[in-house]
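Our collaborator T.R. sent over the components below with a one-line note: 'Predict the complex.' Nothing else. No constraints on interfaces, no templates requested, no preferences about which chain binds where. So this is a plain run: every listed entity goes in together, and whatever single assembly comes back becomes the starting point for the next discussion.
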Amino acid sequence: MWTYEKKLQYPVKVSTCNPTLAKYLMEQYGGADGELAAALRYMNQRYTIPDKVIGVLNDIATEEFAHLEMIATMIYKLTKDATPQQLRDAGLAEHYVSHDSALFYNNAAGVPFTAAYIQAKGDPIADLYEDIAAEEKARATYQWLIDVSDDPDLNDSLRFLREREVVHSQRFREAVEILKDERDQKKVF
Amino acid sequence: MDKPYPNDYYKQLEEIQAADFVLVELTLYLDTHPDDGQAIGQYNQFAQYSKQLKRAFESQFGPLQQGSLNSSPNVWEWSKSPWPWQI
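Returned assembly:
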């Protein structure tokens, strides 16, 4: 089970109402390489991964849910004071007519989230390589978001999230090595 | 944007976030380096430090975690104190 803590993993400050930026951030909310996809992917793969690396998947999945909450907080804060006209100017009219100011699991182009974004192959190496690729794609997405963002407060939080993808990728790479070592030992004895 | 809560709220919360970040980072590290005694020592040190910070914060600003004490006998503080996206 999980218990909730009433805090974000890292502070999220936004400088000003900016629905255009919120629209871009939806890529990390409901996009293919976003935080929801990451959290659901690892949380589901952990059941069939070898015991030695279950912790890595379990704990990174848990952290991804904290990142999902940070992205949601960014989108919420950037749009909560926006008028319908401002949302329209930001290209969010289609979002507004369906959801008002509610958040939804869409990517930046408005495409709804699908489980087809993620995989569970049952083969530990295949799953972990997918996870490494997912972290690298998310890291790249954060970089592109920082490049298009003009909000210095928000960029501070985005840089934190970008660095977390680097650490997660590293831990998944170590998990691969742990499994390879285990496999090689089995061959010897 | 304006900060709706006292400065001390944000200061103490950031100290908790920093301490808990050490725990998250060491947890992931120990998941792949389970025999590193120095890291386990650091982990235990910060686990205690985080608990201290949370106790101090909760006595002033209300519960941070499910399972924390509700200090008021007749007001449910969990739903009264702000949610993370509201601060």
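Summary for T.R.: Chain A touches chain B at residues 3-16, 53, 55-56, 59-60, 63, 69, 72-73, 76-77, 167-168, 171, 174-175, 178 (CB under 8 Å).
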